[in-house]
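Case study 2.
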Amino acid sequence: MQTQLNNFVKENSFAIESEAELVQAFRPRDQKKLVLPEKLKFPLNVRSYFTWKEPSGVYTYLIFKMPNWDLPRGVAFKRSASTGEPVGGLCSWCHAYGTSDEIGMLSVSMSSNVSSSYLICHDLSCIEKIEDNAAMSGKEPDKYIAELYYRMEKLFENISGYKPE
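Prediction:
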């Protein structure tokens, strides 16, 4: 289900009926790294997207579904280790500013030798940041949420369209 306002998608909701459906949303290479959150209840009703970190904090998982997709898709991001003093950074998805403890490189394995990296919020709380920033500035978040969805859609196109040379 999607809600539309002012020609921008405001909210994209979907449900995941079972643990098996959740696991199937991920590519086989990501399924091997998958650590599901404890006490997860199904059906899982998702507003916009669903994300969680595994206990060590190395992997962050994202489940996302565009309205035109048949099924939700998942990806496992690997967090790059921070070195040195915390520095500032800007998330390339939501444009929030934060320290290197909050925003940094998350990479997606494309093959055993290739990965793509994204400078984004470590906890993938981009939609909440967009909504908070819009509320503080008195603006509607719809345009920024639509841009976030577009960036996420492009991530999934990139990883599903990758062809090793």
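The two ends are 38 Å apart (CA to CA).
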